[in-house]
Amino acid sequence: MITNPNDLIKALDALPQKIRDQKIKVIDAERVKNDTKLKYDVAFGVALIEAQAPNATQKKAIATTKTEKKAEDLIASEYNLKKEEAGLKFLEDKFISLRKISSIEQELMRVNISGT
Question: How far is CA 4 from CA 17, 89, 101, in A?
Fold first, then answer.
């Protein structure tokens, strides 16, 4: 926890840049997820068309089996996106908390100066 006002100011100064950097990571993770989803959808569609089976259920099962790796890649990219979003939320919450602490510190200084 930050107890020194100078450390509080430094932290407040540094956080907007960290938040921006984290937002870029989230955007990049979203792009990777979207690219991975597109690759999965295309691979699944091709596998479904190429599947030699008497009915749709069996064709879908074949396509699902053939695209298992792409599905795993999609799950991994979605997981990575969630991690990056959690990191962004953490930084935003920390920034809000530090602003509140700063506001309280200012009020305490005002009270101490006025003597009431």
Answer: 21, 25, 11
What three-state secondary structure class fits 58? Answer: helix
DSSP state of 4: S
For residues 30-48, give the mean pLDDT: 98
- Give phi and psi for 4, each to the nearest 5: -90, 130
Cα separation, 59 vs 98, in Å, equals 56
Three-class SS of residue 67? coil
The larger pLDDT score, comparing residue 94 to residue 105, is at 94
Nearest residue to 74 via CA among 18, 19, 32: 32
Alpha-carbon distance values, 71 to 32, 78, 112, 116 (Å): 14, 11, 61, 65
Delimit the domains of the chain by residue range: 28-105
So what's the pLDDT on residue 13? 92
